[in-house]
Amino acid sequence: MRHTLPIAPQFYVTAPQPCPYLENRMERKLFTSLQGEGADQLNNSLSHQGFRRSQNVLYRPSCSDCSACMSARIDVRSFVKNRSQKRILKRNATLQRRATSPWATEDQYALFRRYLDSRHSDGGMADMDVFEYAAMIEETPIRSRVIEYTEPQFSGLVAVSLTDVLEDGLSMVYSFYDPDMPQNSVGTYMILDHISIALETGLPYVYLGYWVPGSSKMSYKEKFSGLEIYHQGDWKKMRDPAEFADSTHPLSTDPIAEQVANIHLPEQLPHNRR
Predict the structure, then answer these.
(1) What are phi and psi for residue 245, nearest 5 degrees?
(2) Which has the closest alpha carbon to 223: 238, 243, 244, 245?
(3) pTM exceeding the 0.85 threshold for the entire prediction
(4) Which residues contact 184 (CB under 8 A, 6 or more apart)?
(5) 55-105 pLDDT, tens digit each
(6) H or E element in which residue 33 lies
(7) Among 184, 241, 202, 189, which Cα is nearest to 70's?
(8) Between residues 56 and 20, which one has the greater pLDDT?
(9) Which of 52, 67, 101, 130 is exposed most, by the fewest CB atoms within 10 A?
């Protein structure tokens, strides 16, 4: 006799390693694999709870003495462009957007290498070769798109974003751009353009990854109105970044077992046949 059993995601914790955002801190991540017929459901559910995707893995920071890394998203209906953002849109008005299937190209990798060598030469992705880059782009079990931005006048690739399409928004998994165009603020432009795409398609949010109070690398996200932060199990509107400063020195953090127990999984996941 055959029986069907639900596929329950298994969660694991990485070994501690130096934090890339705050000095003299150690980070660790809670993660699970993303595979099978229920990948989209699981990705949607856990993205709502502060998880992020990297290839076929979903992860969320789970540090023993810090909770500063908080998932950030923009409520596109509440977003209002400021003067600086209007100028950025004007400066990049000639860029053309092209959305494609998640497929890696040599032009993308060349731009990716220039971006890393210029801005993140000491980061964890600095040694990524072309095969690892292709895996980052192409190994996706869910609905993803590669959004390229080109400058027709020079026939050149200016920026790329690997973007997941969630049930309630767009998630910018990883983006990079021409490091020789700092005056154009292309990184900010890509976020502004994703806000436009979300509005055009009726999706309420643009997910930006993590925001860390006190981290200069993350401060640009504070400049977007309509920003929401996943804090203490709920999405909260950011009115003042200082309101979240205590997260860098919490009185306590929940044990891993309790964190896993509090994760809400999709009600109906595919079953294995026995």
Answers:
(1) -65, -30
(2) 238
(3) yes
(4) 88, 91, 92
(5) 899 999 998 888 889 999 999 999 999 999 999 999 999 999 999 999 999
(6) strand 29-33
(7) 241
(8) 56
(9) 101
